[in-house]
Design brief:
The structure holds 2 protein chains of 2 kinds.
Chain A: E1 7-8, E2 22-23, E3 30-33, E4 35-36, E5 39-40, E6 42-43, E7 50-51, E8 56-59, E9 68-69, E10 74-83, E11 89-97, H1 116-124, E12 164-168, H2 178-185, H3 187-201, E13 205-211, H4 220-225, E14 230-234, E15 237-238, H5 243-251, E16 267-271, H6 272-284, E17 290-296, E18 304-309, H7 314-319, E19 328-333, E20 340-341, E21 355-360, H8 377-381, H9 388-396, H10 400-405, H11 416-420, H12 427-444
Parallel strand pairs in A: 2-18, 12-13, 12-16, 13-14, 17-21
Antiparallel strand pairs in A: 1-15, 3-11, 4-5, 6-8, 7-10, 8-9, 10-11, 17-18, 19-20, 19-21
Chain B: H1 2-20, H2 22-45, H3 56-66, H4 74-89, H5 102-113, H6 140-152, H7 157-162, H8 174-186, H9 193-212, H10 220-225, H11 229-236, H12 247-267, H13 274-288
Helix pairs in contact in B: 1-2, 1-3, 1-8, 2-3, 2-4, 3-4, 3-5, 4-5, 5-13, 8-11, 9-11, 9-12, 12-13
The chains are: A alpha/beta, B mainly alpha.
Chain lengths: 445, 303
């Protein structure tokens, strides 16, 4: 097994007793973005419509991208453009919660003994969104070739049988322990989701990847052996938990970039949180509308876990927490390594967010506009074996074609180069800027 | 990062004081003051942001002091440091942008201009524990040059290793440099590739020559333990911005430094090959950096 490059990451000290996500009731407006990486959804509702929690309010006409469901009962007040955390603007459905409108949550009827194709269709209707970025949406990413819809049957990568299905229980980045906590507190649910995943994927080998920590989560090997799931303890490095890395670590096959399509090497990856959503959709017919988020680095430095309806505004959630982010000067949505710093707190907490990270005045590390000193620290640690020093210079001085020639799009934005840079250059910002400029120039043509 | 380099230089400075007394400290002090003052003045005059706080000028000063002899005139130290900071570093754009090791640019300037003034080296006079080494009257490489192999054959390896020989302040003590180098490696400021390939290729090259004719060519271990090889391998050749950053580049660079060192030492006009070898390889660095590692994920997509 080839050693993956990266940095050592200490296992976060997870106080499992504290992992009891607090449900936050939301009274203000909810913003549900209709933009997805696979195209924009079509709204099924109009302004002033009343919706109930779980009702489908927007869908992909091709039924490929995950559909959108109302996360609260209420009234649609607007369908308008707004900013989401990754600084993209997208059309959002705005719902004002209204207790009177609350009816019974919409639930589907489930027939026993359904075929993989029906199961996939039903899960597709649950609108499960991933935290990680993937080439294909759920559930098609983990669906066996013969159960795919016609629209995807011409995709060569998806036509390959799934050799390995990886259920990823590793936290994405240092400082975030959402998946570890989920694994510890909801191990039973994950175990229960395995038969559905087996049926859906038809995979011979199912692996659960967890961090290498002694006896954590408790007895996990013996519990998952009952479903013949192989538990793999991965080294405590970063970014091993990111999709192309974990796929390479488990299967030994390099995932082609820049597509990052693990299916083209016969690997399907789903994380434990999405696996629970799959279970809820498959067993109960319940759409995925609630997301659990870690909010850390508040004034006392502790981490809190909250469960909020998808699309709740960050400022609204913060005002309901004890120990507010009074002294925080920087809010990073998406976690310390992979997140985006925000210029406002009116940001909807969408389902692809796993962590919000606050820093106060003393903790903020200021980037500099100093030139690169060519120390090579980033070259040594880049998990994709790129030369981030050169790429950052190309992007800084507008030589985007040169950056693209040098595999800028292989970058997975793990943030290690910025973390190790002694000149404190804003490495990830520069690389994202370069990618953005290249993509923008392509759409202009 | 640069403060770690300062810490790593402490053993070498201590060894300089231990063998050559306060005169050594005085020269190093002059160089550091000159380096910091020159950088401040230059940045004030050119209207740039002051970067003295990053410690790189102090590192240049200390390294410059370490490659001088305590018997060199003080104004030569000032002149050399001035050239190192202004010509070697700031004319090219400052930290990280200068293609050649600033220290070696300054040293080469005074070495070529004032060679006669730089040929006096004091005898080692250890402060405690050791007896002064009494085998050599001149630095090891000069002895080899003037007296051939017989001149150095009796000197115990231990004298070379701890630095009990005449020579410039920081280059005599292999032990002190190794301690500093180990610290740099431990702090991951440098990786093993450049120092190991540098030292190893010096040894291999010298070994081949020695096997050809031991009466003419010195023992390979002598070449590794004498002169500038250690300080060159751990401090001068690994300077950020002047050395390659890829694994292949670093190893090729180290081998190039080692081979050129030996070629200059054996067939060149100069006694010491290390500074010129490093300067030449500095020039090759941009080329070596073009040899890239294979990017992860560059595999055939299914068509």
């Amino acid at each position: 097994m080839k050693r993956l490059r990266g940095i050592r990451a200490a296992r976060p000290l997870l106080d499992v007793a504290r992992f009891q996500p607090k449900k936050i009731p939301i009274s203000k407006e909810i913003f549900l973005p209709m933009g997805t990486p696979w195209g924009d959804l079509t709204p099924l509702v109009k302004i002033h419509d009343e919706v109930t929690a779980g009702q489908m309010i927007a869908r992909d006409e091709m039924d490929l991208a995950p559909s959108l469901h109302a996360s609260v009962s209420g009234v649609i007040t607007a369908i308008k453009s707004c900013n989401v955390h990754a600084h993209a603007e997208t059309q959002c459905v705005v719902i004002r919660p209204d207790e009177k409108a609350a009816g019974e949550p919409v639930r589907a009827n489930i027939e026993a003994g359904e075929s993989p194709k029906d199961l996939a269709q039903r899960i597709s209707g649950a609108g499960i969104k991933d935290i990680d970025s993937h080439k294909w949406p759920l559930p098609w990413r983990i669906t066996r070739p013969d159960a795919l819809p016609d629209a995807l049957s011409s995709e060569p990568a998806l036509q390959q049988p799934i050799e390995v299905l990886i259920v990823n229980g590793m936290d994405r980045q240092p400082g975030v322990s959402l998946r570890s906590g989920t694994l510890e507190s909801r191990g039973k649910d994950i175990l229960e989701s395995i038969p559905f995943l087996k049926k859906l994927s038809g995979a011979q080998r199912i692996c659960l990847t967890v961090h290498d920590a002694p006896n954590f989560p408790t007895n996990i090997e013996s519990e998952f052996a009952s479903q013949s799931v192989e538990v793999i303890r991965c080294p405590n490095t970063y970014p091993i938990a990111l999709v192309p890395m974990v796929a390479q670590y488990v299967s030994g096959k390099e995932v082609p970039q820049p597509s990052g399509d693990t299916r083209s090497v016969g690997v399907a990856v789903i994380d434990v949180i999405s696996a629970i959503h799959v279970l809820e959709a498959a067993r109960d017919g319940q759409p995925a509308t609630q997301s659990t988020i870690q909010i850390s680095g508040m004034t006392d430095g502790s981490a809190q876990f909250v469960t909020v309806p998808e699309g709740a505004l960050l400022e609204d959630v913060l005002s309901k927490l004890d120990g507010s982010a009074r002294n925080a000067v920087k809010a990073v949505v998406g976690g310390p390594f992979l997140g985006y710093a925000q210029y406002q707190l009116r940001i909807p907490l969408t389902a692809d967010i796993d962590a919000v990270f606050f820093q106060d005045q003393q903790e903020v590390i200021r980037y500099s506009d100093d030139p690169c000193i060519n120390c090579g620290f980033c070259v040594r640690t880049c998990p994709m074996a790129l030369l981030p020093n050169e790429l950052s210079k190309y992007c800084e001085y507008g030589k985007f074609e040169k950056a693209e020639e040098n595999d800028l799009f292989h970058c997975i934005e793990c943030g290690i180069c910025a973390y190790v840079c002694p000149a404190r250059r804003p490495m990830v910002h520069l690389l994202r800027h370069g990618k953005h400029e290249i993509l923008a120039s392509r759409t202009e043509l | 990062m640069i403060y770690d380099t300062l810490v790593a230089l402490i053993p070498a400075v201590f060894a300089g004081w231990y063998f050559f007394g306060w005169a050594a400290i005085q020269i190093i002090f002059i160089c550091v003051i000159t380096a910091v003052a020159t950088e401040t003045l230059w940045q004030k005059l050119t209207g740039r942001a002051l970067t003295v706080k990053d410690g790189s000028a102090a590192v240049t000063g200390i390294l410059f002091g370490l490659i001088l002899s305590p018997m060199d005139p003080w104004w030569l130290a000032v002149l050399g440091t001035f050239v190192a900071i202004v010509v070697g570093k700031h004319l090219f754009g400052g930290l990280g942008n200068h293609p050649f090791s600033a220290v070696l640019v300054g040293w080469t300037f005074i070495q070529i201009s004032y060679r006669e003034l730089m040929q006096d080296f004091p005898f080692p006079a250890p402060k405690f524990l050791l007896e002064p080494g009494k085998y050599l009257a001149y630095p090891p490489l000069q002895t080899l040059w003037e007296e051939d192999v017989e001149g150095i054959i009796d000197v115990p390896w231990m004298d070379f290793f701890v630095g009990n020989v005449p020579g410039s302040i920081g280059t005599v003590s292999v032990l002190a440099i190794l301690i500093g180098g180990a610290y740099l490696l431990y702090r991951r400021i440098i990786t093993w590739h450049i120092p190991v390939s540098f030292i190893f290729s010096v040894w291999i090259f010298a070994f081949i020559m020695w096997r050809i004719d031991p009466a003419v060519y010195a023992n390979p271990t002598f070449h590794v333990l004498s002169g500038w090889v250690m300080i060159g391998a751990f401090f001068l050749s690994t300077e950020k911005g002047t050395s390659p950053v890829t694994v292949f580049g670093m190893i090729a660079y180290g081998i190039g430094c080692g081979v050129l060192t030996m070629i200059i030492r054996i067939w060149g006009l100069y006694l010491e090959g290390v500074p010129f070898a490093i300067l030449l390889m500095n020039a090759a660095t941009p080329l070596l950096d073009r040899i890239r590692p294979r990017v992860v994920g560059r595999v055939e997509e299914i068509a």
